[in-house]
Automatic annotation (TrEMBL):
<dbReference type="InterPro" id="IPR050587">
    <property type="entry name" value="GNT1/Glycosyltrans_8"/>
</dbReference>
<keyword id="KW-0808">Transferase</keyword>
<dbReference type="InterPro" id="IPR029044">
    <property type="entry name" value="Nucleotide-diphossugar_trans"/>
</dbReference>
<protein>
    <submittedName>
        <fullName>Glycosyltransferase family 8 protein</fullName>
    </submittedName>
</protein>
<dbReference type="GO" id="GO:0016740">
    <property type="term" value="F:transferase activity"/>
</dbReference>
Length: 284
């Protein structure tokens, strides 16, 4: 692994029905590794592409040539009752391997269908990111004896999901919600915490499996629980993006902009895709 205190990670699986996510991963990698306006400070922050076992070899090889650090992961074993009707979500629990990567102080996970609008590595310097939190053992009614032990302290933060506050018509600045999106979260890796996630998954319907790992994480880090999730500032990420998000300076837009969203933002994504292709054409 790269020797940096922080990492930004995304996830690529071979379960998709086309190359859209692979292309989007390449666009994201170019923005974070090479594009002058948005690239990371590589001395402090590494960019990782986490790949499931189904990710084609040629895609992993291409990403390595692009300059990404590819991490090949074993899939997380699932209980029989955990499934979803959305085929491409089959391997989404593999992204939980980020919780095991204790060589990093913090890992920011962002879904591959994210467009970077301005530098994002400053998020690791935010006050709410720098400190751990003690587990709230006083909330005894929220600690289940049939789940494995909780860590003494922890860190997990995310962004409220705009899907609950008007979707595309959400206000900016947005309202906070009870649920967060698992497409943008930060964690302090901890094996005790990872094992706790696995223990929760062993219990039938402890969470609704329809949205897979997002439901699990929202259960484990529920606001009323012993490890309530922290809210990251709204300017770091938006879901169900609209033009106001971009106008107000949101730094990353989580949307399949090759297919959905406001046309002006779709145009920006296509421009960034073109810049990516031109860059690698010049640096073959």
């Amino acid at each position: 692994m790269p020797d940096t205190p922080f990492a930004i990670a995304t996830f690529l699986t071979g379960q998709g029905d086309n190359d859209a996510y692979f292309t989007s991963t390449r666009v994201l990698a170019h923005q974070l590794i090479h594009a002058p306006a948005t690239k990371l400070d590589a001395s402090r922050v590494s960019f990782l592409v986490l790949c499931s076992q189904s990710t084609p070899k040629e895609q992993k090889d291409r990403l390595r040539k692009d300059g990404a650090y590819v991490v090949e992961l074993q899939d997380v074993p699932l209980s029989w009752w955990i499934y979803s009707g959305v085929t491409r979500w089959k391997e989404q629990f593999t992204k939980l391997r980020t919780f095991e990567m204790i060589e990093y102080k913090r890992i920011l996970f962002i879904d591959a269908d994210t467009m970077i609008m301005s530098p994002i590595d400053g998020i690791f310097e935010e006050p709410e990111v720098e400190t751990m939190a003690p587990t709230l053992t006083s909330r005894k009614d929220q600690i289940r004896r049939d789940e494995s032990a909780l860590p003494n302290e922890w860190f997990f933060a995310a962004r409220s999901d705009n899907g609950y506050t008007g979707q595309r018509q959400h206000p900016t600045p947005p309202l906070q919600t009870v649920q967060f999106s698992a497409g943008f979260f930060m964690v302090a890796p901890d094996r005790v915490l990872y094992n706790h996630l696995l223990s929760v998954m062993a219990h039938f319907r402890r969470f609704d499996p329809f949205t897979m790992e997002q439901s699990l994480l929202n259960y484990v880090f529920r606001r009323e629980g012993a490890m309530p999730w922290r809210e990251l500032h709204w300017k770091w990420s938006a879901t169900w993006v609209n033009e106001k998000d971009a106008e107000m300076g949101v730094k990353s837009l989580h949307e399949k902009l090759w297919d959905k969203g406001p046309q002006p933002l779709k145009d920006v994504w296509q421009k960034k895709k073109g810049e990516m292709l031109q860059y690698y054409e010049r640096h073959r």
